[in-house]
Specification:
The protein has about 80 residues and is mainly β. The chain has strands at about 5-10, 15-20, 20-25, 30-35, 40-45, 50-55, 65, 70-75, 80. Strands 3-4-5-6 form a four-stranded antiparallel β-sheet, with no helix packed on it. It starts with 6 loop residues before the first strand and ends with a strand.
């Protein structure tokens, strides 16, 4: 993937540099997912990396994060947050 394929994201307050394959919107908790080389990580609303992209999350187009934890939905809409890889 070349740099033309990378995402540059700005929410008006911070700009995330153009090195990620995907970036989610910031959620109500102030965290956004960053995807690089098929793995997800997390940044906070100040642009600080909370978790480097290490999570291989399957089945979700854009996972939801609270800090280093991501949301897993199972069963009848039940969910929990985990930091398992």
């Amino acid at each position: 993937m070349n740099t033309m394929d990378k995402i540059n994201y700005s929410n008006g307050k911070i700009t995330i540099e153009c090195k990620y394959d995907n970036v989610t919107e910031f959620n109500k908790y102030g965290f956004a997912g960053i995807k690089q080389n098929g793995k997800w990580g997390v940044i906070d609303s100040s642009g600080n990396i909370v978790k480097e992209p290490t999570y291989e999350i399957n089945g979700q187009l854009e996972p939801e994060f609270i800090g280093q934890y991501y949301k897993v939905t199972y069963g009848f809409g039940e969910f929990y947050y985990t930091d398992e890889k």
